[in-house]
Amino acid sequence: MQLADTELLKTQNYVNGEWRDAAQRIAVCDPANGALLAEIADGSAQDAQEAVQAAAAAFDSWKSKTAAERAAVLKRWHQLIVENIDDLARILTLEQGKPLAEARGEILYGASYIEWYAEECRRAYGQTIPTHNPDMRLQTIRQPVGVVTCITPWNFPNAMITRKAAPALAAGCTVVIKPAGETPLSALALCELAARAGLPAGTINMVVGSDAAALGRVLTQHPQVAKFTFTGSTAVGKILMAQCASGVKKMSMELGGNAPFIVFDDADMETAVSACVATKFRNAGQTCVSTNRIYVHESVHDEFVQKLSAAVAEMKIGHGCDEGVIIGPLIHRRAAERVAALVKESVDAGARVEVGGDFLPTGENYFAPTVLTGVTDDMRIAREEIFGPLAPVQKFSDEDDVIRRANDTPYGLAAYVMSESIRRANRVVEALDYGMVACNAGVFSTTVAPFGGSKESGIGREGGVEGMAEFYETKYCCFGV
Ligand code: NAD
């Protein structure tokens, strides 16, 4: 791999300030063509335990620093990420597949959490509470929870780490991170930059391993862990929640979604199409807030489908490092085959392919960006998270009915509403049972606002002041006078 700074290509686990090897190694490959990128140390449950112990040992000293001291280190980390963006983006695109422009966007987005929480930690205010008893004085103080363990997915291998590690470290917690096996190199490069920025040994630890379940058991159940935070599928999240229960660990869960995208007859069509393209096809549809069900009012359905299909037909497909590419490969063959099966099942049940619909000769993990019409709510494509470049369109005629259909899912992460009517927009945004609703916008995630879901899409929030609160314990202090 060609990098300006070859020291950013790390292939070992990072425990207690040291890079450590393992007896076994795991291959990391480019999903676009299968090329071997690196072989990394296969971390064990023992490594995870030692990482937790190191984080516990480092906690007292890190939490005792002033907010300004912690902020100074975090700001150096932010600065180093920005300075090394070219190398970081190249690593990310090579191991994950998304186009370079998207990789750069993710890295700046990820880094913005570090900068923002470096500032926010100065405002960990407690309260003085009007007393119920003249002989007592009541206060609250906010203190870091302790050792925080994190498990993250492959679809945003940089930002899903910083969204957790930045507020945790800023609050005074120490962290152990297990990144996804598909994308460890982005994570390890971030860790190298954290070390260069001056995060003391033990404050940040990273363990990558092929036995995710064994590592997960340590990170959810070790007695020295105070809080566990996970981003990934709902199925795995449920297993990890159950594991957390045995030790009553605090936890946050950022899980899967099934986002409805509703286009009303009073929508601005250009806005609706470009928002749909942005939410549906970014990262080849492999985002948790990706549009999963498109409901279009029957009076504008044909116009919307024609414009969306025209935009999709023009998308350049190829290796994420190539100029102008919009759609890269899916993460692995299994993912591409699942998407192909969803198309086939839908077509067999009466849906129609407007554009795309098949694998591509570009490589075995490539699937064409696809628009389907005639989809119905009972099809698997409408009930499960697609996680691929398929845009399934349905018709609706009535506002109440489309709200009911949009809410008819166990998921509650993101939803989208396209309407120029301020009255309707307010009504529908309030009625949608989701953690986040975007109106006349396709990309909405930002450091300064709380990101997270309701129902089976998760527990807790990342970003904004809410994201910081996840890493504090509020202590009530009562003083007799
Ligand atoms: P996944 O659940 O398969 O894996 C996520 C992480 O969990 C990986 O690090 C994996 O190694 C680990 N893991 C898997 N099985 C485990 C086990 N038994 N014990 C411990 N760890 C285990 O998810 P994925 O395929 O990597 O990511 C895609 C999913 O993530 C989608 O469902 C997507 O919606 C979700 N996601 C959610 C958000 C959000 O903010 N809500 C953001 C990004 C992705």
UniProtKB/TrEMBL annotation:
The keyword Disulfide bond is annotated on this UniProt entry: no
What organism is recorded for this protein?
Microbulbifer aestuariivivens
Q: Which residues form a coiled coil?
A: none
The record, for InterPro entries, names: Ald_DH/histidinol_DH, Ald_DH_C, Ald_DH_CS_GLU, Ald_DH_N, Aldehyde_DH_dom, Aldehyde_DH_Superfamily, Succ_semiAld_DH
- Which intervals hold domain Aldehyde dehydrogenase? 19-476
Active-site residues, record numbering mapped to chain: E254
**Name of this chain's protein:** Succinate-semialdehyde dehydrogenase [NADP(+)] GabD
Superkingdom as given in the UniProt entry: Bacteria
- NCBIfam families assigned: SSADH
